[in-house]
Amino acid sequence: MSKTPAWLGRLGAGLSRLGARFEERRAAAAADEEDGGDPGDGRPGPANPPDRVPPPPAYAPAVPARPHPVEALPWGMRVAAEAGWRLLVLAGTLWVLMRVISAVQLVVLAFVAALLVTALLQPTVARLRGAGLPRGLATAVTAILGFVVIGLVGWFVVWQVTENLGDLADRVKDGIEELKRWLLNSPFHVTERQINDIANNLQDTIGTNTQEITSAGLQGVTVMVEILTGILLALFSTLFLLHDGRRIWQWSLKLVPASARPGVAGAGPRAWRTLTAYVRGTVVVALIDAIFIGLGIYFLDVPLAVPLAVFIFLFSFIPLVGAVVSGALAVVVALVTQGVFTALMVLLVVLAVQQIEGHVLQPFILGRAVRVHPLAVVLAVATGGLTAGIGGAVVAVPLVAVTNTVVTYLRAYGQGQVSPIGPAPHGATVMDLAPTPPSTPTLPPAAPRSEPPPPEGEERT
After folding, report:
1. Domain around 134
2. Helix or strand or coil: residue 50?
3. Rounded mean pLDDT of 142-160?
4. How many Å apart are CA 138 and CA 144, to the nearest integer?
5. Are residues 285 and 349 in the same domain?
6. What are the residues whose beta carbons fall under 8 Å from the beta carbon of 424, sequence distance 6 or more?
């Protein structure tokens, strides 16, 4: 038998040792997989997947994680940003709304005027219905009486102006001459040449701008046509509001989402009560102003006392500005017709009546129902006048008063602070007060828990 070469034996032994090492490593790998692997040895395992970077060694400095971008901003900046985009959305909505209102300004002003007239006439309809008249007949009687009274007042004013126009022209000429003499003898050192230069400049201005004056007159004709159209729209709207105000309000509630309908149903009658209180109070205050200032003008022998009183009554519906304009017109008429002394007396009468109005009549008649801060009144009148002229100045303050009432009620309603018993139904409301949900029932106080008696020798703390 031949002998096996030595090198072949050594090769077989080496292969055996290599296989043993492979087996040991395979067994170690299987053990690592069962134990989850060692995070620090760099070998792959469930806690150290191959696609992730291994953690830094223990001697490396700790690096803080970057915060979320929202958390990196200061709290004040985040609040300002949140409020800012909401204000931008609100401003955009208001801008679109104002554009729409400007496009249909005539219709909006006519409907608002109808609301004001309805708030004034609705109590009469309610009283006539309480006397037994049907709704249609009560509405017709109230509307006819109201329109007849307004027509008679307008006819009387036109008649007075026509009757006194010739006398007024003569008195104006005499007043201008008297004013000229007073300026010449006044301490202002006005010369006759300066007065003549002012008169000549005025005549030249009128002659130069004849075309503009003519176009303004034609534009005035267009404005008169629009005013007549608005009056007709207001008349029709008033008739329908007086007759079907309740059903119109109930139909309007259907346009409100169901979740917000109870709150709006409760705020509507309260807003209507505020509007009614404002209109009736303003009419009473304007009537008192017109009567007393008109009597003062009449006893001072100023012409056109009745037309001036009606003018004061109408302009009293424009807060602050109307009183100034109407009073200034009365003073100017007294100045050019009766002289400086009579104008000063008229000015004293106007100031006295307006002071009594501001400090006695308005707080007593209007009360707390439509109390609006004077700054809010000034800003509202200015905004309304810039937006829609005289009509906007008239409706600005009642709009602010109604908005204040609605916002106050909705805030209390959202906080659950609304009394389940609302204001009693009034003749000026468009519908009976919508029932408000009862306030959140309060649970009865829980009975005190019975505690086990303390052990002997211990006192209860």
Report:
1. 108-168+206-255
2. coil
3. 80
4. 10
5. yes
6. 433
Q: What is the DSSP letter of 53?
A: P
Q: What residues contact 376, with CB distance under 8 A and at least 6 apart?
A: 400
Bridge partners of 48, per DSSP, are 45
Same domain, yes or no: 271 and 376: yes
Quick: pLDDT tens for 242-265. 888 888 888 888 888 888 888 888
* Domain assignment present for 198: no
- Sign (positive or negative) of CA dihedral 174, 176, 181, 187: positive
Crossing angle between the packed helical segments 105-130 and 210-254, to the nearest 10 degrees: 50
Cα distance between residue 28 and residue 4, in whole Å: 36
- Dig out the tokens for 328 from the structure: 């200034």
Is residue 85 in a domain? no
Question: Does position 271 have pLDDT exceeding 60, yes or no?
Answer: yes
What is the amino acid identity at position 23? E
Q: Is 101 exposed, middle or buried (0-12, 13-18, 19+ CB in 10 A)?
A: middle
Give pLDDT, residue 87: 92
Looking at residue 386, its pLDDT comes to 80
Do residues 376 and 404 both lie within one domain? yes
Would residue 93 count as lying in a domain? no
- Per-residue pLDDT of 303-314, as tens digits, reads 778 888 888 888
* Region 417-426 average pLDDT: 50
CA gap 309, 307 in Å, rounded: 5
User: How confident is the model at residue 89, as a pLDDT?
Assistant: 93
Kindly report whether the global pTM for this prediction surpasses the value 0.85.
Answer: no
By the 8 A CB rule, do 392 and 385 touch? yes
Q: Per residue in 6-41, is it b (16+ CB within 10 Å) or e — as a string?
A: eeeeeeeeeeeeeeeeeeeeeeeeeeeeeeebeeee
Count of the separate structural domains present in the chain: 2
366-369's contacts with Cβ under 8 Å and 24+ in sequence apart are 366/277, 366/278, 366/281, 366/282, 366/285, 367/277, 367/281, 369/273, 369/274, 369/277, 369/278
How many other C-beta atoms can be found within 10 angstroms of the C-beta atom of residue 411?
Answer: 11
Does residue 239 surpass a pLDDT of 90?
A: no
Residue 58: count other Cβ atoms within 10 Å of its Cβ. 6
DSSP per position, 233-254: HHHHHHHHHHHHHHHHHHHHHH
Instruction: Report the DSSP beta bridge partners of residue 45.
Output: 48
